[in-house]
């Protein structure tokens, strides 16, 4: 499976804002965007003309990077969202939010989405009682996501249990750290998705 292997912090600098790809490092003074708040590269400090297409392209890139999705899969999600009833942009964000790796991250069981993706791929997570090692698996209403009993004593989950309550969990999820369990109560609505993305620009880009 293709995946990005470059420096995550360069992605934040390219978008000129924190994408929270590195967990605790993003909250510290060591965050590169705090030190160099301009795009990477030789001409990073130069002025660029923000054309309509560039703004749309950057917004799509930002969304894909936040959720750790590559172009082909992201385009597939957009096509799926476009077929659904309702606003395409909101449908797209809902699809991205209901990915299993994002749910594990949102519930506070991982420091970043990359970390959550690794935990899922290593087989530490169960969906409705069944081991699931596919980060892109999607959750539905009334699903139960939990850490497998054989993995609960591992350091990442011990840390997550100790730090329970420090991170705000979205209203559509319920985190139960004592049982290392996540309950999915509803599908996320746009107003509760705090990802700073202008999804309409993405719709405009793909609609050309």
Question: How would you explain this protein's 3D organization?
Answer:
This protein has 208 residues and is α+β, with helices and mostly antiparallel strands. Helices cover 40% and strands 8% of the residues. It is built from 9 helices and 5 strands; from the N terminus they run H-H-H-H-H-H-H-E-E-E-H-E-E-H. Strands 2-1-3-5-4 form a 5-stranded antiparallel β-sheet, covered by helices on one side.
β-sheet strand percentage:
5-15%
Q: What is the helix/strand order?
A: HHHHHHHEEEHEEH
- Give the spatial strand order of the biggest sheet: 2-1-3-5-4
Task: Report the count of strand segments.
Answer: 5
Q: Using the alpha-carbon principal axes, give the shape.
A: globular
Radius of gyration: 18 Å
Mean of residue pLDDT values: 86
Tell me the span between the first and last alpha carbons.
Answer: 29 Å
Structural class: alpha+beta
Number of helices: 9
Largest sheet: 5 strands, antiparallel
**Helix coverage percent:** 25-40%
Unreliable sequence segments: none
List the main descriptive attributes of the protein structure presented here:
single chain; 208 residues; alpha+beta; 5-stranded antiparallel beta sheet; 9 helices; 5 strands; 40% helix
């Amino acid at each position: 499976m293709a995946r990005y292997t470059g420096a995550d912090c360069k992605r934040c600098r390219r978008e000129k804002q924190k994408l929270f790809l590195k967990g605790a490092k993003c909250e510290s003074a060591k965050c590169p965007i705090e030190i160099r708040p301009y795009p990477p590269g030789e001409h990073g400090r130069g002025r660029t003309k923000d054309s309509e297409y560039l703004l749309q392209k950057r917004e799509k890139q930002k969304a894909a990077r936040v959720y750790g999705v590559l172009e082909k899969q992201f385009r597939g999600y957009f096509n799926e969202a476009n077929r659904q009833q309702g606003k395409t942009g909101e449908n797209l964000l809902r699809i991205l939010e209901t990915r299993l790796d994002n749910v594990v991250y949102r519930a506070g069981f991982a420091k970043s989405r990359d970390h959550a993706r690794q935990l899922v791929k290593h087989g530490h997570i169960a969906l409705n009682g069944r081991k699931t090692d596919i980060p892109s698996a999607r959750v539905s209403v009334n699903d139960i996501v939990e850490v497998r009993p054989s993995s609960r004593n591992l350091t990442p989950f011990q840390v997550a249990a100790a730090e329970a309550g420090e991170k705000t969990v979205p209203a559509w999820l319920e985190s139960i750290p004592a049982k290392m369990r996540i309950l999915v109560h509803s599908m996320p609505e746009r107003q509760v998705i705090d990802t700073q993305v202008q999804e309409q620009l993405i719709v405009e880009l793909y609609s050309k």
